[in-house]
Specification:
The chain has about 230 residues and is of the alpha/beta class. It has helices at about 15-30, 45-50, 65-75, 100-105, 130-145, 175-185, 205-230, and strands at about 5-10, 35-40, 55-60, 85-90, 115-120, 155-160, 190-195. The chain has a seven-stranded mixed beta sheet, with helices on both faces.
Length: about 230
Amino acid sequence: MGADLAVIVTARNEAARLAATLRALRRSFPEAELWVADDGSEDATAHVALQEGARLVQAPRRVGKGGAATLAAEALLRERDPAVLLADADLGESAGKLGRLVDAVSDAGDASSAADLAIAMFASRVGGGFGIAVGAARWSIRQATGRTMAAPLSGQRAMRPSVLHRLLPFARGFGIETGITIDALRAGLRVVEVEVDLEHRATGKSVSGFGHRGRQALDALRAYASRRARENP
């Protein structure tokens, strides 16, 4: 899958790692169109994106990961509806290993076994806290769909053509991944998890790290609540 693939890289203040991520993606998917969804960064993220030849969709202010990704996805769909790979900007060189994820939604092999949505599981855990954010996302998805996910917060997701528009708008903030999984499963899409040897800029057991994971947990629960509200207007 090459020219029929678009990659949306979500970023906020990732100037230090974005270039390496985009270059790795370019090497692995030379024909794919690279987009950067910039969530109102205050550093040189936008400059790096343009310098590396990516198409930039920049939120005028911080709108959260889900909001920025929605803006980029809508801009893409105004032009075409290809297979899509979502990736976080902090993957660096390891972004080049996402071919396994794209293969999972490709018709290159057995079309009957191709997934509609493939989610990357990190082969080894890097950083993290006590599992509260992951637990909140996992609980939310299980409550909404009955499915228990190994990597409910993974930002690395590949989807077949015609799937993206069914998942928009994405849930707000860090609820994007929880919302995508719930919406895909409820729509009857085939969702698989694929182990990939990835690295990222992990948050550890620090004040900022716990704050980040707290926001992730709250946004995951909000994504679940908003989808429950749709069922019971």
